[in-house]
Amino acid sequence: MPLTEEEKKKRKSESDKRYREKNKEKINKQKQEYSKKNKEREKERCKLWYENNKERVLKKAIEYYETNKEKIRTNTKEYYENNKEKIGKNRKEYRKQNLEQIKQTQKEYREKNKDKIKQKQKEYYNEYTKEYQQTPEGKKQFRIARWKYQKIVPPCTWDEFHDEWEKATNCADCDVVMTVGERYNTPTTKCPDHDHSITDGSPNFRGFVCHGCNIRRGK
Ligand SMILES: [Zn+2]
């Protein structure tokens, strides 16, 4: 008597069960491999999707950031405050372990963006430094820096010395009314004269004279 459909099904199910029990390990391994393979495929799929929707994703992210700016900032700040030590330590550790890589990346960045960096520096200089140099304080600091460069050692603080320089009107030698040169010296430019033979760091200032007399006095 031929088997009924029902019976056929039952037999198959039983045989399947036996097969599964007998080959448990093999099946498990296959499952694992499939899942692993699938995972990679899923990853690939995600990556592809991201590549195709990059602009949209970025736009969304920016939108999210813009609308939640305050919240994000507060959260970030709070998180940082609460984990300051840990973050600092991690950063330090990361830097220590990847120093060569970091240096290399920075070098490459600098080389790749040389012109851009130069332009930025120029802009910065124009915006801040030049403006600052036009202020009285900026001019004063510029003068002091130049005097230091000339190895002048005042008998007082640099602030006091600058005050004295401002007060001096007539040349100590020829009594000419001295002028203030911003960039270039003229014969009447006011100059602090100093003894070039004193080089041990002790005061070597001799007096305010005009540029002409300063040259005549020589070394
Ligand atoms: Zn003079």
**How much helicity do the residues have?**
over 70%
Tell me what the CATH architecture of the domain at 150-217 is.
3-Layer(aba) Sandwich
Number of helices: 9
What's the N-to-C terminus distance? 131 Å
Annotation, overall tally of beta strands:
2
CATH class category of the domain at 150-217: Alpha Beta
Query: Which spans have pLDDT < 50 for at least 5 consecutive residues?
Result: none
Q: Look at the helices and sheets and give the structural class.
A: mainly alpha
Which helices and strands appear, and what pairs or packs with what?
Layout: H1 5-22, H2 24-67, H3 69-82, H4 84-97, H5 99-112, H6 114-134, H7 136-149, H8 158-167, E1 190-194, E2 205-210, H9 211-217
Antiparallel strand pairs: 1-2
Helix pairs in contact: 6-7
Protein described:
The protein is mostly helical. Among the domains are: 69-112, no CATH class; 150-217, 3-Layer(aba) Sandwich (His-Me finger endonuclease fold). Helices cover 71% and strands 5% of the residues. The protein is built from 9 helices and 2 strands, in the order ααααααααββα. The longest helix has 44 residues, at 24-67. The radius of gyration is 40 Å and the shape is rod-shaped. The structure holds zinc ion (ZN). The site of zinc ion has 8 residues, from strand 2 and helix 9.
